[in-house]
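Lab channel / #folding
Pinned by the channel admin:
"Please post every new chain as: sequence first, then the structure tokens as a reply. Keep commentary short and put observations after the output so the thread stays searchable."

First post following the new format, from NK:
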Amino acid sequence: MKTVIKNVLEAIAQNSVEQAQAALKAAIPVIEKTAVKGAIHKKNASRNVSRLTKRVNALASSMQ
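Reply from TO:
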């Protein structure tokens, strides 16, 4: 889970909208699966997804 989150953050740091969106699409199922298995709390997973989505959307809107 940490790796996919790091991939999203690296794509955001590189200002690559397409790469960040693709990394986010790959990260969401991994984060949710981690919560379902009980490794993290479901609200923690939701918070992570929400924060990453917010950052990717902000990057996309700043590029337009």
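NK: The chain is about 85% helix and 0% strand.
TO: also worth noting, Residues 2-63 form one domain.
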